[in-house]
Records
---
Amino acid sequence: MLTQLHNVEQSLNQVILGKSSQIRLALCCLLAEGHLLLEDLPGMGKTTLAHALANSLGLSYRRVQFTSDLLPGDLVGMNIYDARSQQFRFQAGPVFSQVLLADEINRASPKTQSALLEAMEEKQVSVDGETRALPTPFFVIATQNPLFHAGTSALPESQLDRFMFRLSLGFPDHQAEHQLLQRDSSTSRLELLTEQLNTEQLRALQQQVPKVAASDALIDYLLALVNSSRHRSDMLPLSPRASKAILRAAKAFALINQRDYVTAADVQQVFPYVAEHRLAPASDAQESRLSQLLLLQTPCPI
Amino acid sequence: MLTQQMLQQKKLLLCWAAIQLSLLLLLQQAFAGWVIAIFALLLLYRLLSIFQAKAAVSLKLVNLLAGIIAITFFLQLRQAGVLHFMLQILLLAAIARLLALQHLYEARQLVWVHYFLIACCFILHQDMLIALLIFLVFAANLYSHYRLFSPSVSRLNWRQSGRSLLIILPLWLAMFLLFPRLPPFWQIPNANIASTGLSDTLDPGSIEQLVQDDSLAFRVEFDGALPPRQQLYWRARLYEDFDGRRWQVNALRQNASRQRAPDNAADSSLSYRVIAEASQQTGLFALATPVTSSSNVFISPGGLLSSSKPVSQRLSYQVSGSLIPVMLISEQEQQLNLRTAAGNPQTQQFAYQLKQQYPQSHALVQALAEHFRQQPFYYSLTPPPLGSNSIDAFLFDSRTGFCSHYASASAVILRHAGIAARVVGGYQGGNWHPQQGYLAVRQREAHAWVEYLDNGVWQPFDPTAAVAPERILNSLDSALPEDQRALLDPGWRQLALLQNVRQQLMHLDYYWSVWVLGFNENSQQQLWHNLYRHLPAIAYAVAVLFSIIIVLLLYYRLTRSSTGNTPEATKQLYRYLGKALAAKPPSLSVSAFLLQYVSHSPGQNVCLKQLTALYEQALYKEDAVALKQLKQYLQCHKAELGRLRRAIKNT
């Protein structure tokens, strides 16, 4: 199954050029059953990534463009009166899909944002007292513009916490952009993507993640890392939920790297993307200053 | 390669600029005015460029500039002297380096040159407060050194720094106590600084200026009890040439200062140690008749002490002697002190009268003292100006004068009366600090008195004691009228608090000079001697100390291992590769560190990969089999591990 996963990774690399580490991290987030927040300027390929991910994994994919007048009902769905059957019928919203791209999440009102975030956390939605489970796997890729852009309302810290990873694609390098301009159109490439890994296989991989071994010494190191963020005034402390997320992400990262044990290097690799938005919600995703600082200041004895 | 962001840290550059500026100030004695101006200009330019965030000056320009300046220094070598030239070149190198700083190794060189220059400051200064200042500069340099190697983002780790200092402290103490005191490698040139203290000529008025100076002249600690105050006449100069107005040291005395007086078996009941302040003069101080002294000081035939070189640093010497007056050395000395100068007719007349009345010289001196006591003579810091026949004008007209007037007039009278007499310059009394146990003699205790020849002995006679006995028994302040005391003490000196602080600082300075500066070969030998004598006790103490430390260490290890213990695999690896792993940056994991070298040293690749694979299995999977294999691997591949260690060390 891991070979299929690597095929997925390769074909994603064909679509989004020069961003292999971000693609690997995005897959890692998917395996760890977390949700992904992409922070970038418009036009950097966020949507393409989400779409390509859904296509190559054979998952159902919906995209919602968040605007300031989007209502929770538009997202979750609502009971509509059917005149013919004289009954209320539930009209499922876009949230009932396996990959949901919440585009420009920070342009929606806080109410809509929290409806989505609740769905992310609970993996279910309740409409008019009736609880409906969301499909599995359920993977949200939210994108947001950097906060200085007009008409945005920032996600509060408690809600940022729901996203396991925060990534930024960043500008492609010269070679990648040159290649991008030479070929016809990326959408055609998107359509060429075939299902490399079916849903069952993905589920199986996701279930393997918790089984990856993490030794006592490694967990001690992780705790030292997390602890170094506490009792400081220049950053928010990392919560136990954050440490759980870091370990899970590291395990997924180890799995992608074809290992059945987590190394300290795995923790160090995923740490900036898992921790930075929890340490400093308003920070720029491009530079992970605080998490790098913590990595540098925490000795790794193993 | 110094990372660019590190160099752009204004803090570090500013720190270096500040260090160089303070070095310039500390070493300014060694530099001529134009040299200081050049350095100051270069530093100013650098400071401006730091604040405007300009890049460093190009290396070529700096080299050219430094070359030109160095050549100028070289041309002035004769004037500056070799040591000062060396200091100039070193400081020039440091400043030029700062101007064109680009790489990490350059910054390291800079820091080391700073250390050397800081140490050089002690050539010119031994004062405690300045030593404190030098220590601050040293600390700043140490900080910049630390910054150079610490990750640029992290703050100063106080705990770690404190621990390093604690570790180094015993070493430092041991170096101070046990390092052999070597003779200096170079001669310290005589600085062109004005000398302080008594000069070789005694004008009417020269002592009045001196007593307004509150600075310290020397300090004395007595081995026995303090002699009575009336006997504390510290002799420093013999004035034997009189030209009618001023007294001068005879040329004979100046040349004779290198001769040693014959060792006479006079009793040396009095023993004391003098710590003289820097005066840039050779003349030193002793009571009455010194008999023996430490080797750095000569006793001249006149009973005066002198050092071979002008005293440019605080100098400490031991003297033993007696309070018996000095003996006459030769007939020539007597003749020298019978010469009279023309002029002062009234004085001559007065002297003849006295001589006729009192043929005995002792009685004559008594009568002279009585004369000063009976007639309305006044003791004053501000005597009126005297005419050409100054002695006449003083004795019969103004009758107001300071110790030099009285001494000068008495000596002239005695000489006219046919008694050999001379003026002695020195210090009288001093401030006794009973708790600290030393006598502080300041410049304001400067004094002049007379010695006359009586039965082959130079008897001291202090006319001032007749006029103002309080001067001798108490202090100068009490001898002066109220309105003149203000001349001695400017307003700020009268503040009690300041006075107290000054006093405490002086005591501290005393301990500093006794315990730190005065720690020479003798003290060191004494220390060794004492150590040897108490060897069993010391061995016992050291053993106890060691066992306490070991117990503490064991306790520390035990308590530590119960909380967060090092995994067995890591322990094993450190056992075999500890030295190589010491180079590991603390935040990097062991296997990541080792795998760095896969590309560096292809010869070790197989070994490295196997090792890290086993290590990761054993550590991260907690695989017992892998751990066993790792142990076996480490045991069986010692040669390869050695090669690996070397490879890591060399890259």
---
Amino acid sequence: MRLRWLVPTVYIIFLMLPIYWLINMSFKTTNEILGGFSLYPRNFTTASYVEILTNPVWYNGYLSSISYVVINTVISVTVALPAAYAFSRYRFLGDKHLFFWLLTNRMAPPAVFALPFYQLYSAINLFDTPWAVALAHCLFNIPLAVWILEGFMSGVPKEIDETAYIDGYSWPRFFVKIFMPLIASGIGVTAFFCFMFSWVEMLLAKSLTAVAAKPIAAVMTRTASTSGYELGLLAAAGVLTIIPGALVIYFVRNYIAKGFALGRV
Amino acid sequence: MLELKNVSLAVGAENWIDDVSLALSKGTLNVLLGPTLSGKTSLMRLMAGLDRPSSGSVWFDGQDVTGVPVQQRNVAMVYQQFINYPAMTVYENIASPLRVRGADKKHIDAEVRRAAELLKLTPYLDRTPLQLSGGQQQRTALARAIVKNASLVLLDEPLANLDYKLREELREELPKVFAETGAIFVYATTEPHEALLLGGSTATLNEGRVTQFGPTIEVFRKPNDLVTARTFADPPLNTIVLPKKGAKFSLDGGADLPVPVELADIADAAYTIGFQPHHLSLRPPVPGAKALRARVQVTEITGSESFVHVEFGGSRWVMLSHGIVSLEPDETVDVYIDPRHLLVFDMDGNAVRVPDRKAA
């Protein structure tokens, strides 16, 4: 029993190791990385970070990634709110089938949609803009958002809606003033998942952009192939890519448990 | 005046509300009495305008309001579940209908404090509803209904989920509180004694139909039919089917029962005889009453009174006796039906004879 701590500790070390190694590498020079094995940086350097934060090619990658992710999250949640409300409150012809069909959208690999989107966006001059990626990501984020939000909304008794109508609230006013505060945690969880899926999705993001709106993931792969193995730089870029996700997780950590409890996440 | 004219509500193939016509006048207390699923809530939702009837119309003060959305009707409703806005304080909860209406701050504050005082919520105004006990939550909902000053107040089993003492207290307070406003007051309940305590008028509901509507005592004493009598009886109405022949009711097994003088003039036929538990007793209520040999099934003792469940010729009856009556199961006892208080129904369930108050 005294060794009870052993298994979790080993497990956590096992999980943290790649992240530590990435951070470790990011503070080394490329020569040191290629030169031999070391557990910590011998010649500690922040040159990689300075390069990323000063070179527009690099930091624009972050900016465009963040912009399409934010646009996508806002669109997804805004569109999903009324849709989820309809699914949770009204019975209409084929509602259950439609609801399930929404989920099946997540089953198709994004690659399937890359070509039609490419062709479509080129035709309407959306190609290589953050909007192209943001809209493409709606394809799987809106169904997800509807699915999660519906769970939270169905947890609110319908009588609250009716009481508000009886009190004299119009639907929009009721929705914003009474209903949204009640499902605030649900909106938080939904936004988090939209953010995450959009942030890690690479294939559509890469194929729908060329130069102007190139996402950070694309910048990383291209740099690696053109100027040899800039491993220190790549590691630093990797660390910076993890940070936004970690930040968002930190803020919604308490709500995610609730989302899991509802069985919708 | 609220009028329902031949209102029906069909959900799928079922009729939740079946051809209901009612007229409720201003300043009256009306009780909707019926078992669960009898349509009380559905009927209230139709009155409020939350649902639209499948057929028929709803009139308010001589105007057809059938399709008018609930926001534009001056109604208030309190549900059996404690429904408040969890994200707002108690103060904001009570103020909400006035805020929506755009009343000025001073007026709102005065009204909220008055209602809170009335329902003893003043110390809790800054809390949120979920930090209150069930009774306080329900009083918050009631306070919101009061400040609205609605012309139609619908209370759907508002006290069902409250503890006993609070229920007694609120049941007394509520009618007074709303009586001042001159509103039409509708109160749904499953409990006959609650209807009797509230007084006013009662509409008994059964399977989506209003079986009788009139002054509460009147409906209780003189039901139009067996269904109403059963709805308005707790413990359940005792019944027995007896064929009348001349001056005798014949019983199973060849015995017979003299027909009481009050019923001497009804035609010879089979009748369903109903009587309340307190009209069944262990001692002859009138000289010469016929004893019936019944078998005791179970005795429930509340302290001041005892409910003895007995079985007689296949019928199961409940007898209400004062004090503590100790009878063992399977014991045989002589019981007496008070012939002055019989409800007589024909085999279609229509009342043939109900006790006359003067004669009793």
---
Amino acid sequence: MWQKLKDGIEIRIGLTDLIENRLRQYRVPSDTNIFYTLGIVTMAAYVVQAITGYFLLMYYVPHSEHAFRSVQDIMTIIPFGWFVRMVHMVAANLMVALLFIHFISIFFMGSYKKPREITWLAGGLLLLVTLAFCLSGYLLPWSQRSYWATTIVSNLPTAFPVIGDALANLLRGGDSVTGVTLTRFFSLHVGFLPPVFLSIVGLHIFLVWRIGLSVPPLSQSAEEESEWTEFRHATYSRSYPFYPNFLLKEVSMIMLFLAVTFFIMSFMPTLFLPEAATTPADPLNTPADIKPEWYFLAPYQMLKMIPNKFLGISLQIIAIIVFLFWPFFDTRAERNIMKRPLIFGLFLVLLALWFLLTYWGRYSA
Amino acid sequence: MKRRSFLGVLGTIFGVTAFGSVAYPLLRYLGPPQAKIDAGKQSFKKADVGDAREIVFQNTPAIIINRPGKGYIALSRVCTHLGCLIDYDRKSKKLICPCHAGFFNLEGRVESGPPPKALTTFPLRVEGEDIIIG
Ligand code: HEM
Ligand code: FES
């Protein structure tokens, strides 16, 4: 019976051939380290977001008079509603953390160099889209924290002369945050961003698959280093099959991600839920300690410190553009960052600055 | 004109017209009409000397302050930095923004912190027991 079913499927789909030729014979370099799995782990985080987000949608009401109540009901009345919401919230934070580590490791290993520039660009866009997910999702519970954090962020464009105010009003659908802003962010969060995210992921993964994984710079052989003058799939001097070897590595890292998610939910449940997140939005009262999420603290502190609003925001836009197009600026073929002391030093300084600003933003007035 | 370049020009014209006719409505769609409750003037109760009263004037959170020796002033509470609402601190006689420590004096002018300009002032008149703004 089972065999008959298997044969029936085999005749129609050719699974054995797929597994044999597309997975088993697909090679990855044997020097890949655990950082090579971060992309898939981030994708798993997205899938977790999509599933929990879908369940939240069943009870969440996107209206300024009901949103806060509906989220409280999810937390207290709906059986295991707290579970669904906490997973969505914790995994959202971890997803951003994963993207940061993914990006830092790609940078250190020089994997963005020719021919992988477009892969980097797509990845950079994915980071921006994920931050847009977080920003729009943040408003949805309609708490004091949601309301005032969104007020601050949606006022950032006003730093631009002439078009600034119009831009901010377009974003909010009015000159302050209202129910119109809530439905607007809701439609972004659940309707617009997911297909955009998935299309870019498609391109990103297609390119990784098509070109083949990079070999870590320290174990690159001369042949692997040869100049890319026409399209070819990467070839390796030492490699192992994608399936089952590498896939197993990926699955165990996904399990680590899930373990961290559930560990935080069980033992540090208020890590991402300060008091202002559990008070309903009050447009006539700004609470004392409004801080953005940890990943926005550094840019936020930078904005606070630069006395000129326009200068502060322009600097950040330039930084984003340089980040997105970095492989097109840094075209030297040398992939070993140890042989590029200047770039290496500069990047360490930037990282240190980021941590410093984050710490400062967290603890300053 | 060759048949092919004529078709190219025609296609471009139609394309631009179609695109423009879609882009304009969509852009307008994104900016809903503002609830204009332009009541013109509104009247409010007086406050004691040294006290302040938080009000909402034409959809904007505002504050009426009875400044000792200088009389009433009506200011918008919306911080000119990034839009948080300022609070009146009775002790120091200052208006303080809780978000990035912007300080304003009782005329609404910036004393310290990141706000780039003074708070909006509303014209105000005292009539008997009432304060008329607008
Ligand atoms: C990369 C993907 C996503 C990220 C990073 C993300 C992030 C967030 C964040 C930060 C919140 C606020 C959490 C809170 O304070 O409670 C939120 C809320 C929400 N999200 Fe997502 N989200 C993602 C995908 C989705 C998807 C795909 C859906 C639906 C199809 C969804 C539906 C919702 C809903 C309904 C809420 C409001 C309920 C609540 O806050 O508990 N999300 N999201
Ligand atoms: S919003 Fe008032 S100081 Fe920044």
